[in-house]
Amino acid sequence: MMSPGFQIITPDGNKIRFLYYTETTETASAFEKHLPFSREFMHARLSGFEIWIDTAPLLEIPQENASIFAEAGEVVIAPVKPQRNKIWGCMGIFYGEGRLLDAGNIFGKVHAEDFEKLKLLGDQTWRKGGQILHFEKI
Fold first, then answer.
1. CB of 78 closer than 8 Å to CB of 107
2. How far is Cα 23 from Cα 46, in angstroms, rounded to an integer?
3. In this structure, are residues 37 and 135 in contact, taking their beta carbons and an 8 Å threshold?
4. 3-state DSSP call for residue 69?
5. Does the pTM exceed 0.90?
6. Domains located in the chain, CATH noted
7. Are the CB atoms for 59 and 94 separated by under 8 Å?
C-alpha cells in the first residue's frame, strides 16, 4: 500500500513524485521532519542503477522494510542504528534494480507516471556527474 509522499526537483526543473510505503510509517514520519532539504546526489559505482548520497538526513528509527535488494523506482535510507551498518548515513534512489552493500529501509516508490523522469535523472547523473536535488513535501 502507498500513502502521500514527497517530490524532488531536479536542476532542470523537473518534478519527480514519490509515495511512501504504508508499512514504513516510522521511516516516512522521520524523513518528513527533514523536508525541505537539498543535497548533491552522485551515481553509484557498485549497487546498480542508483543515485545516492552519504550525507542523508540522520534518522533515529528502527530498521523497517529493510533489505539489500531494491526495485526500480524505490527509495532507500539507512537508519542511524545499528552503526555497524555499512550504509549508515546513506540514501539511494533506484532507477533500475539494485543491490545495496547492507540493509536499508525501503520506504517509498516513484509515481508510475514519473518513472521516465527518474530514469532520465539517473542517466544524466551517470553521464554528467553530481546533481543537486531539492526535496520537499507534496
1. no
2. 28
3. yes
4. strand
5. yes
6. 18-137 (2.40.100.20)
7. no
